[in-house]
Structure to design on (432 residues):
């Protein structure tokens, strides 16, 4: 067994860090396989990270001997793993490689915040404060105090952390799920969740039920740390979001999809719906859930009660969006996996392309990170693209019709042509 382990370690060590990063970040599921749960993703990422790099390769003395390229790749590997898996050893590796990259001026300001948030998401407030003290020039936010709740004997009780400010603190509270509840699982950065919070708090039929029975909850992650939840609560006080402690204790399949509307009674799910449809359909879906719990008599509900919402949905509010989207779709060079594979094959044969500036492994990672939805590209990973010049990043985005969305973020808006700026304004119903 020792010989086999040594052989596996030697094979892994023979791979360069670029190749190892590809193996670490490749997709977990096949074309016909289900998306794994967050727990499964965390386990897979942790196992890959452990197998591909040894603790010694992340030790300060070994990192000091590595090239800038290797340190940057190991920083990306640790950051990617910590997003899914925040076990102490993963965060230790991340903290060590951030320290080395800091000495070489290889760290973007956002990397310090990711490290800080990784410790917060794990509930390690001491480690978060250590990072804050080590890099005072970064101006990281204060670390909140955590106030533990007294123990409870209540059955079907789950622990949540309420976000309190002035002073900043997480206050633990036990909540019983024996009573009828609507659990809304969402993240602060989800635009659909923000739309739902606004509309549901303003509807005269559903707002009272939301106030009495709804719990807005977020699972522990780097997207749901104290300061992001505080941001949400400041903007949506009628939809106060709380942090779930142990997600396995909740009658929710996973905390990955946002938003989820889960109606429960006596700790059991009665109705569940993922996504926010908007307009009257979204309101009616929530109304049906409350009716299933016996909290709303639909027979007494006017059939036109929610029709007003159709006049204020984003689609209705922007009359030029549909036509602009169709024009974008028709002008997009790559919208299917087959078209992308054909394009990349030509790049491998020497065709001119901004992607030719990337390493072979970086192109593999990029291909693996392109997500298709129907006959369009829903998104793609941009981390490897940051090595390209702004104009090259624009050219890559234009391959998928995403230059309208990424302008001003991944490259200057001035790179858009006059026609593209006009189409972008029509899509967002805005003006320059």
């Amino acid at each position: 067994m020792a010989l086999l382990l040594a052989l596996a370690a030697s094979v892994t060590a023979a791979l360069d860090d670029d190749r190892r990063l590809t193996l670490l970040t490749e997709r977990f599921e096949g074309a016909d396989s289900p998306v794994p749960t967050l727990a499964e993703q965390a386990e897979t990422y942790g196992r890959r990270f452990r197998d591909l790099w040894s603790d010694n390769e992340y030790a300060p003395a070994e990192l000091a001997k590595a090239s800038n390229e290797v340190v940057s790749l190991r920083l990306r590997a640790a950051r990617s793993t910590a997003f899914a898996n925040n076990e102490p050893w993963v965060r230790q590796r991340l903290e060590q490689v951030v320290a080395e990259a800091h000495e070489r001026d290889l760290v973007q300001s956002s990397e310090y915040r990711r490290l800080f948030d990784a410790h917060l998401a794990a509930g390690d407030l001491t480690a978060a404060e250590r990072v804050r003290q080590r890099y005072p020039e970064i101006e990281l936010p204060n670390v909140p105090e955590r106030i533990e709740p007294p123990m409870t004997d209540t059955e079907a009780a789950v622990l949540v952390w309420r976000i309190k400010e002035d002073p900043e603190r997480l206050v633990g509270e036990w909540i019983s799920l024996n009573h009828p509840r609507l659990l809304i699982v969402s993240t602060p950065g989800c635009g659909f969740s923000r739309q739902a919070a606004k509309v549901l708090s303003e509807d005269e039929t559903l707002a009272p039920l939301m106030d009495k029975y709804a719990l807005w909850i977020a699972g522990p992650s780097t997207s749901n740390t104290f300061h992001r939840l505080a941001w949400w609560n400041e903007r949506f006080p009628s939809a106060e979001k709380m942090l779930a402690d142990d997600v396995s204790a909740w009658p929710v399949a996973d905390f990955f999809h946002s938003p989820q509307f889960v109606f429960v009674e006596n700790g059991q799910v009665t109705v569940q719906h993922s996504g926010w449809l908007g307009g009257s359909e979204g309101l009616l879906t929530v109304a049906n859930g409350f009716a299933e719990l016996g909290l709303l008599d639909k027979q007494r509900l006017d059939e036109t009660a929610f029709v007003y919402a159709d006049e204020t949905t984003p689609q209705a509010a922007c009359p030029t969006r549909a036509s602009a989207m169709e024009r974008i779709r028709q002008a997009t060079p790559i919208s299917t996996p087959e078209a992308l594979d054909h394009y990349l094959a030509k790049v491998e044969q020497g065709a001119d392309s901004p992607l030719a500036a990337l390493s072979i492994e970086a192109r593999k990672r990029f291909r693996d990170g392109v997500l298709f939805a129907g006959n369009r590209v829903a998104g793609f990973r941009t981390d490897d693209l940051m090595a390209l010049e702004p104009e090259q990043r624009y050219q890559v985005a234009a391959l998928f019709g995403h230059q309208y969305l990424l302008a001003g973020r991944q490259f200057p808006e001035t790179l858009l042509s006059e026609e593209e700026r006009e189409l972008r304004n029509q899509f967002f119903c805005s003006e320059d």
Remarks:
- The CA atoms of residues 1 and 141 lie 48 Å apart.
- Strands lie at 145-147, 157-164, 169-176, 181-185, 214-218, 241-244, 260-265, 268-274, 371-372, 377-379.
